[in-house]
Recover the amino acids of this structure.
């Protein structure tokens, strides 16, 4: 009895960890995962990690090149660049995560609705989605942010809304596929209503596609936040944000290139890291890849 | 024929057609049968003869494009024309179905215990704990070893035969009066098949479940069925108790089907040990576009004459019927006489 139990436990753990092992073997994905992890930690622990107050000017030490006291140098007001990058990462992550959550909360139910019920619901949802997709993501985000007015909250909302159509598309496609699989037919044959079918059978099986979409959505939102802040539609100075830093670095490109280089590198590294992680997850989670 | 009051499931003149822009396909054409409690009715026929569509119609699982006429009575309830809401209350509770593909018919992300429990909680209002305990009992009932451990496993940890047993456990969870098994053993190894048939057999004996077994495997039919309904091109062509059908098939199509079954030794011995080609039925299944007022088997039948191509034969028992209560029905103008058939 005990042996049988522990055997069962071992077997199910082995099955679950097979995918994790496959992901570990993917070096690019692991690199991405580590960098993304550092970025997330920096964002979470910003007040502890940052060596200085990111908003505290030091007029005796403006435009200082990187040295041991200011690893990434200082900006035109003598503020510590490292501290500002760390707090900027915090703003980026905040927008990234909240915008993706917003996009999922709205997009997933609409995608399920369109995919499962079809007909009028599908036509309405899909046409609106198509219309939104006709605008490039960043253009849509800028337009919405301009309408909503400049603030971090509004930037988040604008980016979240801009990501809704992609989420709808993916949820709808997965629903259309899963609607016809045998176990959904079996659930209906056993008396399962729409709610059971949608939330117990279709949605859980669509998770892997949605997880991948989320890891692609977060870096897109990070870029979106940087862009909106750069244009003055997102985080407002003196609050730190990678976009705000890049914006103010423009005037000092020649005398203080580090002002532009480090926040720029942070955006690139974060975006690349999440995308690599997302690619790796897609390879592992895609059932059609079938690496069992 | 009027509905039989003693039958748990009574199908009368069930017809199903699918209308598309280009044409209308008559998939099922006036099928009738009765099913008594604890009885196993085998529905046999080749692919596309309408046997699956018939049972999907009974379950109310056909797409909205299907046009259904006739009567389907489950006990005293009329099912034909019921909407999804009406069906949702009886599916899985009073009538249940198991499918051909055990490998894909279970949800990969839920434990089998939860999938069995889902039906129990829906139809019997059991709590999570009660449903789990009952799931263990059911796994035991369908012959899964160590059910208390298996209940927490995921479908991918089970073999095909075990998964089909789980499907059966889900189907009989609420003790339905009727179980429709749509080719339950087709996707399985022969040894596993025998185990599944045994489970069905024991369910019928222990729970009194009536079973409609859809198959094209006559070996399975001989094993488990009480009565057989043979279908051809959407129409019923013969219905008889299983022994009678195998011993004395009346319809030429049924004879063709039976003679196309491999019997080790038998055919070779009859021919003095020489090689012999397995008999086949010449020609092709007709398209189901039209409902000709004729015997649909006539173009392939050696006995066909003018009447066969100008009038549809009734589905009836002949004068030389054994008369033992279970009628032997055939839709043929020239059925084999008992003497002929017995040969």
């Amino acid at each position: 009895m005990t042996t049988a139990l522990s055997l069962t436990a071992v077997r199910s753990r082995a099955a679950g960890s097979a995918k994790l092992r496959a992901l570990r073997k993917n070096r690019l994905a692991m690199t991405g995962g580590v960098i993304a992890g550092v970025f997330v930690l920096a964002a979470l622990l910003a007040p502890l990690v940052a060596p200085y107050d990111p908003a505290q000017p030091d007029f005796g030490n403006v435009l200082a090149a990187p040295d041991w006291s200011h690893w990434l140098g200082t900006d035109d007001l003598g503020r510590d660049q490292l501290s500002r990058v760390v707090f900027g990462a915090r703003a980026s992550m905040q927008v990234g995560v909240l915008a993706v959550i917003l996009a999922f909360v709205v997009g997933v139910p609409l995608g399920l609705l369109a995919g499962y019920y079809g007909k009028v619901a599908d036509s309405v949802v899909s046409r609106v989605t198509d219309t939104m997709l006709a605008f490039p993501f960043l253009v849509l985000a800028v337009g919405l942010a301009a309408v909503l007015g400049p603030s971090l909250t509004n930037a988040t909302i604008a980016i979240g809304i801009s990501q809704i159509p992609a989420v709808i598309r993916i949820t709808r496609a997965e629903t259309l596929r899963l609607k016809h699989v045998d176990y959904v037919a079996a659930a209906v044959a056993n008396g399962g209503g729409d709610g059971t079918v949608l939330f117990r059978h279709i949605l859980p099986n669509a998770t892997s596609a949605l997880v991948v979409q989320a890891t692609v959505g977060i870096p897109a939102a990070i870029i979106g936040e940087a862009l909106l802040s750069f244009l003055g539609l997102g985080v407002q100075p003196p609050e730190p944000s990678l976009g705000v830093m890049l914006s103010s670095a423009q005037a000092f490109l020649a005398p203080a290139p580090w002002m532009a280089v480090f926040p720029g590198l942070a955006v690139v590294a974060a975006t690349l890291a999440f995308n690599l992680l997302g690619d790796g997850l897609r390879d592992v989670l895609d059932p059609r890849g079938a690496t069992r | 024929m009027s509905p039989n009051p003693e039958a748990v499931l009574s199908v009368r003149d069930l017809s199903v057609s699918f209308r598309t822009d280009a044409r209308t396909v008559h998939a099922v054409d006036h099928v009738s049968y009765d099913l008594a409690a604890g009885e196993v009715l085998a529905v046999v026929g080749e692919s596309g003869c309408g046997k699956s569509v018939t049972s999907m119609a009974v379950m109310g699982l056909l797409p909205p494009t299907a046009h259904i006429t006739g009567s389907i009575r489950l006990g005293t309830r009329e099912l034909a024309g019921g909407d999804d809401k009406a069906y949702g209350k009886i599916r899985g509770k009073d009538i249940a179905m198991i499918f051909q593909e055990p490998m894909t018919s279970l949800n990969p992300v839920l434990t089998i215990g939860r999938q069995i429990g889902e039906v129990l909680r829906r139809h019997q209002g059991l709590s999570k704990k009660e449903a789990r305990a009952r799931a263990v009992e059911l796994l035991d009932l369908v012959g899964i070893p160590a059910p208390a451990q298996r209940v927490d496993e995921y479908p991918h940890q089970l073999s095909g035969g075990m998964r089909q047993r789980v499907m059966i456990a889900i189907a009989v969870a609420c003790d339905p009066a009727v179980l429709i098994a749509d080719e339950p053993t087709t996707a399985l190894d022969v040894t596993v098949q025998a185990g599944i048939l045994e489970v069905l057999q024991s369910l019928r004996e222990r729970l009194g479940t009536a079973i409609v077994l859809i198959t094209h495997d006559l070996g399975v039919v001989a094993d488990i069925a009480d009565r057989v309904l043979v279908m051809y091109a959407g129409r019923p062509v013969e219905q008889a108790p299983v022994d009678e059908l195998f011993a004395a098939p009346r319809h030429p199509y049924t004879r063709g089907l039976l003679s196309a079954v491999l019997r080790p030794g038998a055919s070779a011995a009859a021919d003095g040990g020489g090689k012999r080609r397995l008999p086949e039925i010449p020609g092709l299944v007709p398209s189901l576009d039209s409902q000709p007022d004729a015997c649909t088997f006539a173009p392939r039948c050696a006995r066909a004459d003018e009447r066969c191509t100008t009038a549809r034969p009734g589905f009836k028992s002949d004068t030389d019927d054994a008369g033992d209560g279970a009628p032997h029905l055939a839709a043929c103008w020239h059925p084999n006489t008992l003497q002929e058939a017995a040969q």
